[in-house]
User: Fold this.
Amino acid sequence: MVETLSLEELVQSIIPMASSTQDLIPHIQLANTFGALFIGVVLAAVLFGVTIVQVFIYFQTHSGTGITFYKIVVILLWILDALHLALIVHCVYFYLVINYANISALTEVVWSSKLQQVVAILSIVVGHLLYVHRIWTVSKGRSKVLPITVGIAVVLVSGLAIAVIWCIYQEIHAASDMVKTEWITYVYLGTVAFVDVLIASSLCYLLATSRTGFSKMDLFVTKLMIYIISTGCLTSMCSMTVIILCAVMPNNYLFQAVDFLLIKLYVNSYLALLNARHYGQPHADTMNSSDYHMRHDVYRPRLDVGAPQDEELQASQKSMFKHPDDEVLHITRPVQAVMPQRPIEVAMQMNSLSSA
Assistant:
């Protein structure tokens, strides 16, 4: 005969099991390990929401340009960001839900934990290469020493990234193995922070040497420089924070939680650079090229210059922030009769910055 238990007897039999489980969990220090990972995932999800807004704004402001290189880049960055978020969500879900109260499983390294690091490294490399492309294009007509130097630094960091990926899959098999390989984390994130500062400094130098003496244009250049410095410092500070937390507290996951945010900062900083015109000029859709086109047909200058000047102007149009579908400036008089040629070149760079 099957013995039936009353509800009270069933509850009383469960309580000791729950209390014994709760006695084990505090010894693992969940607050600064998996609790920190959970908070990192929540913050990463918030930043991913910002990424979605940035992507929406970009496609709204470039809805009539068709398929372009920068649209493909935006889609690629969004896919990498979404994939990274999915992987870190699975990682935390594996430990806190699937293996809830399974103490032995907490010492394992789930596959999504390794793969999310690969996606993060790949996203950082892609972001660096895109910035190098901008530095190269804006330095046309100038010395190539700066873009080549930055490009070499990015290639070296990319090679180091391959070594990090190899180390992740060959050396890390349990949570305790992360302590043995923390040295390569210091080297990689340290070089990433250095490259961030180098890229920000290079862009600021190129912008600073493009000042025209026109107050409105110089103000826009100053805003861009402040933005580039702040984003470069932000990503560098995030990398240095991961290094410090890993060195000071290697036995918890606070450094990993901050590392979750690093890729989000890279993606959002680049997308915000593409949307610079939208942020800096709220009515840019109705004021395109307003500095050189008088509205209501009062005056619309068109360019009629010799071949050398025409080639120089065309080269300036393909500047660092040039979008293939941006409007081309047309002037009907010689450039010298309207305004100096250098402000026109800088204006083309600034306009194409936000519509890249």
Remarks:
- The mean pLDDT is 75.
- The longest helix spans residues 215-248.
